[in-house]
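Batch 3, record 17
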Amino acid sequence: MTMKLDRRQFLLGTTALAAAAGISPAFAQQALRLIFWGSQARADRTYGVTDLYAKDGGPAIEGEFLAWNDYWPKLATQTAGGNAPDVIQMDYRYIVEYAKRNAIAPLDEFVGGALNLSDFDQDQLDGGKVDGKLYGISLGANSVALMINTVDFEKAGVEVLGPNTTYADLTTIGEAFKSKGVGKAVIADGSVSEPMYENWLRQRGKALYTADGKVAFDEADATEWYKLWADLRAAGVCVSPDDQALDTGPLETTMITLNKASVIPSNSNQLVAFQAINKDKITISNFPRIATDAPGGHYRKPSMFFSIAGTSKSKEEAAKFLSFFVNDQAASKVLGVERGIPCSKAVRDALAPTLDEQSQIALNFVANLGPLLGALPPSPPAAAGEIDASLFRTLGQEVGFGAKTPEQAGPELVKGATDILNRAA
Amino acid sequence: MTAPAMEAPVPHAGGAVSQSWWSRVWQNHAPGYLFLLPWFIGFLGLTIGPILTSFYLSLTNFDLLTAPRWVGADNYIRMFTADPKFIASMQVTLTFVIFSVPLKLAFALGVALLLNRGMRGLPLYRALFYLPSLLGASVAIAILWRQLFAGDGLVNDFLSVFGIQGPSWISNPRYSLWTLIVLSIWQFGSPMIIFLAGLRQIPQDMYEAASLDGASRWRQFWKITLPLLTPVVFFNAIIQTIEAFKSFTPAFIISAGTGNPINSTLFYTLYLYQEAFGFFRMGYASALAWFLLLLVACFTAFSFLTSKYWVHYDD
Amino acid sequence: MTVTAPAPRLTVVTDASPGKLLRKRILSVAAHVALIGASILMLYPLLWMLSASFRPENEIFSGTLIPSSWSLDSYFRGWNGLRISFGTFFWNSLVISITCVIGNLIACSMAAFAFARLRFKGRNFWFAMMLMTLMLPGQVTLIPQYVLFRELGWVNTILPLVAPKFLAVDAFFVFLMVQFFRGIPRELDEAAMMDGCSPWRIYWRIMLPLSLPVMATAAIFSFIWTWDDFFGPLIYLSDINTYTVQLGLRSFVDSTGSSDWSSLFAMSSLSLIPVFLIFLFFQRLLIDGIATAGLKR
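Prediction for the assembled complex:
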């Protein structure tokens, strides 16, 4: 959490003084509270925008930021205690839970008024809807992507993955890696990556969940998925299960940073972050295809949202801040593409020329996905996060370590997911 | 726990003893309650409310964001009949308790005895052995432990000197729990300090007298040190066991809250935490907590009841 | 338990034979070697962290213990890395920790005295209740406590972290002190009572002075655990100016973006210093404790 002590304290100080003196300048509005997750780098950008907003005549914003792991318990505690901040950064994994319980407020009433979304991408707007109502404003679009270590591929004499690379090609690349002695696996173990599974399903014309919140794949799909990775594992194309289990979430523990593999599944807006911690040059590509004539399976998804707390007393003010955040061009220059590609066309066009090389790559990647892009899937059911965290990953690990066969794991995935969905209903 | 009475001062013989029953009760019991007053206020004001509320919550479905919904004993029934993760986490936790507590206490006592011999550099050694405990909840632990116990970590480098090809301890479901047991034992500084304080309270002149009597060091240990140390041993055993059952932070940090690989590090309280804050099932988590409380309370009661056979108090 | 001096012997048994002396020497050296070896083993992870803090950023995970180049860069960067200097965090942690120590020492020793030495109705029952508070995992009392503190208006202050200590909420210390008090012979109390001492005087003049080892222990633990606590401050502190060191440290690492490991290691190493100093300081009391215990006869 950053604070430019002088400016913010000055602002709050004058506000307090003015309020005490009974005068009410434009500043003496109720300060808004904001909470978001991220690192210091994101905080710097965010507070840069709140400063701009205050300069523009808006109310002061009291911000608070935490690491991802700490963010959710704190937010849940504050919400349970009736003390949630006004503006809340939201993630697609949780937005349905919070929306269904009215912990965040529907924003439809502000659209067109305090909240200007006139040139917002439609699919990004839809991404923030639950049951047809708008609950979150997308702060940036991203897409799933592979992070690729270019140096390893040069060493192997193979071209980096591209729009036409298939899963079958991975094995060929693996052989090249071996013969040129690259010393790593080609790719991380994707069987524990839910985004990769979803992408693979979509290429087959299936999906993770149906619009009415049921499992949209069957046992045959799941079994084939596990078998695909079991074969890659046996051929040494993907990392061993011991190595994959080292990946506990932070970027520093990913296979590419630990030098266990050259390719990992990730999100397009994390390219800059990955490059910062890896010495070798990293580039970005789409997920492997199952066949060159299959759909690409990608879609542009909101990377994160801003929502407004259900208990907020300043919803209109908060909506104005949200509008500023996503529409103001000076703000967008401060934010860059750290949270994703801006969803407003005007903002994108103004921003693009000012970005550095890595950010340009990330920006263009999403724009150039072209035929690989498909429609946004329906918003996932409330227990989707649980299915990912407690069932999907565990099953993938069990198959990896040989505790279960793909034939066992497939049906279990379907049954387990259905049970969890039923329990949450 | 028996307790000989402490009688309130009675006027000396010669003066008329004319205390009413009430004032005698007051004199007998008042000091206790007065000394206990801060604790009472804390207990009744700050602690008992949340504890009872958590019990109430265990009988509800509470998703944190809306009001709790009564479901009676459903949570408990589900726990015992339909929850494989409950069983898994219980296994993990019991294994952890059974191995880490005795080993930790053994190290703590052993090192404390060593350090108590009044050797040179005692304060420094004591401080050095205590340092690991200072890192307890640090996120740095996750990195440090991975540096040590990953497939290409330092432990395996060390083992390879002897020609042993070690697995990736920290990311293999068969061994990952052991890295956490080692972590717990590594932080034996706390019980060690307590043992040291207990050893310090044994008067030196007893040892002097005993060696003048010709007792060997070993006899001295058995006949003087150990018996007089039993209240402290008892304390450490109870506390370390309770803490081990409740152990959360190491597993949370090292597995990044996942309990993986394959739930091999899914400590009971980590599972509880996932249910509460990860999956919005605070009611179920409260039921899990109360079951743990019951388990630990039974263990503790049993320990207290059997303690009179081996714990030697000076009063 | 009194010890009577033995009758004087006619022959004096000495240990002065050369064989015995040599064995003693060897044992002593062996003990030292074992201790040093064990210390290195114990400290290796810490040494690693210390050395990582002196490394340049991209070398942190390179695995060797001795860095190829030493730089204090991460210390400077980390100190101001969160826009608020770590000095503020250190100060906040210090204030909270010291206050908690004071609260714990006062309140817990009073409660322990009551449980260990005074008889009153329901004593065993309340003792059991106190122990029970140790056994319930904190995660489930978190929300009800948060609501309680919110009603009191204490959220966003350090009061939820500090005030409970003055009300003997830490059952660990009460239990610890009870065990130690029970190791102090009752004859002292009885003698004092014959002289007409009130329970308060017994507590103040006899019990406490003889309990320096356990008081020092409690002070050390109380300080260190409060210093290391992050969950309490996480939930109850929102204003970064009130953040503690642990909260500051956690802000360096975020799994969704880039983390600043070298700053984390640098500041973690620094944050070990105050607790280490406290430990060294109170250790003396642990040593002095034996002198008083010997004198009491």
